[in-house]
Every structure is written in structure tokens, then in C-alpha cells.
Amino acid sequence: MNRIIVCLKQAIDVSQLKVDPATRQLITAGAAKKISDFDKNALEEAIRIKEKIGNIEILTVTVTAEDAKTVLREALAMGADKAYMVNDPSFKDIDTLGTAYILAETIKKIGNFDLILCGETSLDSFSGLVSSRLAELLGLPQITSVRKISVEGDAVSAERALEDSIETVKAKTPALIAVTREINQPRIPSLMMIMKASKKEIITWTAADLNLPREKLDMKIEVKEVLAPKTERKRVKITGESAQEIAERLVKALMEEGVIGR
Amino acid sequence: MSENKGIIVYSEKHDLLLEILGKGREIADKLQKELAAVLIGYGVQGKANELIKHGADKVFLIDNHALTSFQIEPYLNVLHSLATKYKPETVLIGSTRNGKPLAARLATRLQTGCIPDCNRLSVDEEGRLVCERITYGGTAIAKITFKTKPQIATIPPRTFEKPQPKERNGQIINFDVKIETPKTEIVETKPLEVSAVRIEDADVIVSCGRGLEKKEDIVLLEELAQILNGQVGNTRPLAEDRKWFTEWVGLSGHKVKPKLYIACGISGVIQHVAGIRDAKLIVAINKDENAPIFEVADYGVVGNLYEILPALKEALKKQLQ
Ligand SMILES: Cc1cc2nc3c(=O)[nH]c(=O)nc-3n(C[C@H](O)[C@H](O)[C@H](O)COP(=O)(O)OP(=O)(O)OC[C@H]3O[C@@H](n4cnc5c(N)ncnc54)[C@H](O)[C@@H]3O)c2cc1C
Ligand SMILES: Nc1ncnc2c1ncn2[C@@H]1O[C@H](COP(=O)(O)O)[C@@H](O)[C@H]1O
């Protein structure tokens, strides 16, 4: 095993995302960004494989319409050796097929690798499609929902967490693996690691550097609307002098709603 | 045969396939198109009739020893060959850990769009499928449609009701296809103990969050759940960090739709709330009056769950006996 590529998405930090209460539109302009949670697990796993068998180069690849250097610095501090940022404003309107296509072309341009690690799904879009699309475009063996990886020479063995079973699957490398959050606890880089990372390289490519024909990136889907859900809840506060009084009032309300009793 | 025809539905999970057939039938009737189910496996022909009874006009049967257990490449090849020959307008696939990669790769091979985890499906004026899905960690619901055919969408388990079986006429077609060899090898399969009770089926859920201090205190919720004929639920940290449970309610867990959801010591972070959106009535008990759970609750009690829950138990006993 010589080289692992980790696909890192710069995602909107959904826990800090604000909504305009009047229009229910999301305020995405200027929203905080971070490495998508599951992708940190993928990177952590790559680092652990490297710590175990040594002498592996870890590269990260990010497709983004906006600059992602700040976020990529964190990946380098965690332990990635080099980060590739494929950055072009035209990537604002691409879907999962377009993203996977750009990732595939980037990875082809980078050259040899043994393993591609992805997150199971991304924090903001939560689609869970890109890794499978990428495996298809690159014609790779693919293992998804992985909670444990062991490297065995030129093969990998991985444990998949399925709905009603745990499946152990083996594949020859090069292969693509998508990991769940259970797989590990990503490290928090120390100050030393952050300092060391400032010397590491972030390589920036544009659509032109990859010779991407625009029609390959055309959207196959059309987003009609994205709105915060209506909260049509009553929001009645039940108060009282004592816990007992509150409980009795609540029970009365629930009876009247017809959700308890007969 | 250039025209796009009909709807194809597939899931490797039989119950989920039946659920999708119900919704598929509705859409097929609206568009006056044909509904076909795909049955892949070994020794599975016995199930074909049930698919017809649940709404399929046609069943494509691919029965082969090499398809005994799910493996992505051979299963993908079957669906791809079928889609290339039959040219469906729409393909609905069960959103499971195996089904989702299958849908994503089929959509890639066919150079088309894929909309995952759709909670609602409808059809627009142009006859296109419109999918609703939760996005941005539960902050928003997106309505998305397709620009290309076939339109491929994945449907999570228990999103739609299983239809009532009826005696109907349908055609079973043995579909002949060359089976691709898998690129991975299954070394071992260990079945998991899955609880027979499904939280999705509960009418009442009494749910706890990190406001609960000790594992033993779950009994406080269990007592309430028992009186109300319901089940106990929980937030993700109680499973992931504290290991008190193995599953949870929310965006990345179970989406529930009880008549009554009682949230105890739950802050109401969006990822949790995304799982209870379809509850008929939500009650929140939280000691912090500014907890976001109160924004999405019908009835809110600002108070200590250790005082409110025992009192609630007494009040319920009094009322219901
Ligand atoms: C990608 C992603 C997916 C996620 N998916 C899910 C998911 O599916 N489901 C999920 O639940 N979470 C999910 N989470 C986690 C989620 O963001 C929250 O961290 C979690 O829901 C919070 O759980 P909580 O409400 O139990 O804990 P907290 O947020 O810590 O809230 C505890 C609450 O208890 C109250 N409290 C404390 N003591 C008492 C008392 N004695 N009486 C009454 N109230 C008390 C406090 O005021 C507080 O409001 C996800 C996170 C990520 C990043
Ligand atoms: N823009 C991107 N850049 C790099 N990797 C990505 C990007 N989008 C998705 N991925 C990878 O694909 C996985 C699944 O993403 P998604 O299909 O968006 O849920 C992520 O966890 C990443 O590993």
C-alpha cells in the first residue's frame, strides 16, 4: 500500500445554519463551513492505516465552488500529506454525478493509488451517492457502510454494518471504501501538528486544468425549492404550582387532543 | 423502442419492495403507465405472485444461483440490462445500505439523476416525478425533480404503507441476462439481533435525551410507556456516547410518526427533530425554558424531568383507570 486518497467535502456547518423566519429560506451566504463529519472519519482511518503499516502517502481531494484552504489546513494538520483543491466558481451548479465526474478526473490526473476513502454521506446534502458514483466511474471494487478496515497485502478486508447483519467483505486493491461514523474517533490536531501543516502543500486546480467539458457537469436534477419546514405546532406552555398540578393539566390536554385514553 | 415506458421498482428487502409497490401503483395509475417489479435472487419465483397482488402489472424474474446473496456488480448488471431493454421512465429503489449504492451506480451507468431518501413523491404538470427529502441536517426540506430519464429515486423503509393484497392479473417474465462476476468477496455474514418491535410502528413514544442522568433512570420512561401502550425512544448521544441503546430517533436514525411523542431532557437539535416531524402531537419536558425543543412542541413543560415524570405517571394512572 503506497497511496491513499481521501475525498473530503467542504460542507456547510448545518448546526450553525440560520433560517429567515419570514420566507423560510436558508441563509447560506457566509454560512460557516467545515470538513464534512464522516469525511473526517475517512481521513482518520487513512492516518491510522499509515500509522500501522507506514510509508503511505495520504492525499485529500476536494471539489468546491468556493475556496476551501482554511478547512484543508485542518486536514493537513490531522495528518494528510498533501491536499488537492479543485476549485471553480462554475461548480456552484453541479449535482452528485458532476461532483463524482470531477473527482474521477482529478484522481485519474493524480495517478496511482491503492485505496480511496469516502464518507458514507455528507453533512449538508446527506445524499450518500457520490462515493458509489465515483466507484462506478472508476470501475473500482466498492465497499460501503464500513465500520472496520484491515489491510492485507494487496487486498483490503472490511466490515459492513447492514440493517440486519454484519458482513465481512474482501477486495483487491485498488478499491473504494465508504466509512460510517462508528469506525473511529477523529483526532484533534495539536498545536505542533498545526504548525507542521503550514509547510504542507495545497494544490489548486480549476475546471480548465482538468479539461472538463461543461456538458459533463450539466445537472440531471432540478431543485424546485429548499425551505425550512413549517412549524405548525401549538407551542402551549403548561404551568402550575406543583409538578402534580402540571402533570394533571398535561394529561387533561392530551385527553382533549384524543392521543391518550380511548 | 425509444419511448420511455413505465415504472420499475426494486428492493432486495421484500417488505420494502411491497411498500414501494403501493406508492408506485398510485403514480402508475395517475400517469396511466405500467408498473413492473423486479425480483432477483435464487429460488425466489414463489414470491412473484405476491408482488402482483400488491400492485405489479409485471414481474421481471431473474432467478440464478449466482444471485443468491446481494452483491453490487451482478445485481447492478441485472438492473442495468433490464433498464436498457425496457427503458423505464422511472425507477424506484429501496433505500437500504445495499439499495442506495445500487441506485447510485445504476444512475451513473445510465448517466441520469438520482434522488436519495425521498419521504414524499408526487408528479408535476409535466408528468415528472417530484421528490421531497430532508436536507441540510434537517434544517430544510428540498423539493427536487429530474431533467433526464430514467428518473431514479430511493425510498427509505416504512415511508409508505404496504398496500392491501388483492387478486389481480399480472405477467411473470423470466428475464435472461448474463451474470457479471462480483469484484468483492463476502467472507462472512453475521446476523444481527434486531428487535422485533419497531419504533416506527409505535403509537406513543416516550423519548429521552442527555437530560437523563443514569441508565437506571430509563425505568422512569419505561413506566410511562407501559401505561400509554407505547415504546421508549432516545437521542443519538445516548446510543453513540453512552451506549445505553443501540439505535436512536432522528435524521440519521429512525423517522417516527406516533400519535404522541414525549421528549424528556431533549434539547431539540435539528437532527433529532428531523426524525419526529411527522408525529401528530409533541410534548416537551425540559428544564431550560430556552431549549429549541419548545419551538417544535405542541405542549411544553419547563421543569425537571425527575419531578415531572413521576407526577405524570400518577396523573395518567388516575385518569386511565
Ligand atoms: C450528521 C449528524 C447526524 C445526527 N443525527 C442525529 C439523530 O439522528 N438523532 C439525534 O438524536 N441526534 C443526532 N445528531 C446529534 C444531534 O446533533 C444532537 O447532538 C443530539 O440530538 C442532542 O441530544 P440531546 O438532546 O439528548 O442532548 P443535549 O443537546 O445535551 O440536550 C439535553 C437537554 O436536556 C435538558 N435537561 C438536562 N437535565 C434535565 C432535567 N433534569 N430535566 C429536564 N431537562 C433536562 C437540557 O436543558 C438540554 O436541553 C446528529 C449529529 C450529526 C452531526
Ligand atoms: N465536493 C466534494 N469533494 C470531495 N469529496 C466529496 C464531495 N462531495 C462528496 N464527496 C465524497 O462523497 C461522500 C458522500 O457524499 P454525498 O453523496 O454528498 O453524501 C462524502 O463523504 C465525500 O467523501
How are the elements arranged and paired?
The complex is a heterodimer of chains A (262) and B (321).
Chain A: E1 3-7, E2 10-12, E3 18-19, E4 26-27, E5 33-35, H1 37-53, E6 57-64, H2 69-78, E7 82-87, H3 96-110, E8 115-119, H4 130-138, E9 142-152, E10 155-161, E11 165-172, E12 175-179, H5 191-197, E13 201-205, E14 221-227, E15 236-237, H6 243-257
Parallel strand pairs in A: 1-6, 1-8, 6-7, 7-13, 8-12, 9-12
Antiparallel strand pairs in A: 2-5, 3-4, 9-10, 10-11
Helix pairs in contact in A: 2-5, 3-4
Chain B: E1 5-10, H1 14-31, E2 35-41, H2 48-53, E3 58-63, H3 72-86, E4 88-94, H4 99-109, E5 114-115, E6 120-123, E7 129-135, E8 140-146, E9 151-155, E10 171-174, E11 184-191, E12 204-208, H5 218-227, E13 231-234, H6 236-240, E14 260-264, H7 270-273, E15 281-286, E16 299-302, H8 305-320
Bound molecules: flavin-adenine dinucleotide and adenosine monophosphate.
Task: Describe the overall structure.
- The complex is a heterodimer of chains A (262) and B (321).
- With 262 residues, chain A is α/β, with parallel strands linked by helices.
- Chain A contains 6 helices and 15 strands.
- Chain A has helices at residues 37-53, 69-78, 96-110, 130-138, 191-197, 243-257; strands spanning 3-7, 10-12, 18-19, 26-27, 33-35, 57-64, 82-87, 115-119, 142-152, 155-161, 165-172, 175-179, 201-205, 221-227, 236-237.
- Chain B folds into 2 domains: 7-174, Rossmann fold (3-Layer(aba) Sandwich), CATH 3.40.50.620; 199-320, TPP-binding domain (Rossmann fold, 3-Layer(aba) Sandwich), CATH 3.40.50.
- In chain B, helix 1 links the parallel strand 1 (5-10) and strand 2.
- The N and C termini of chain B lie far apart (67 Å).
- Classes of the chains: A alpha/beta (262), B alpha/beta (321).
- Chains A and B meet through helix 3, helix 4, strand 9, strand 10 and strand 11 of A and helix 4, strand 5, strand 7, strand 8 and strand 11 of B.
- Strand 15 (236-237) of chain A pairs parallel with strand 16 (299-302) of chain B.
- The structure holds flavin-adenine dinucleotide (FAD) and adenosine monophosphate.
- Flavin-adenine dinucleotide binds next to helix 6, helix 7, strand 15 and helix 8 of chain B.
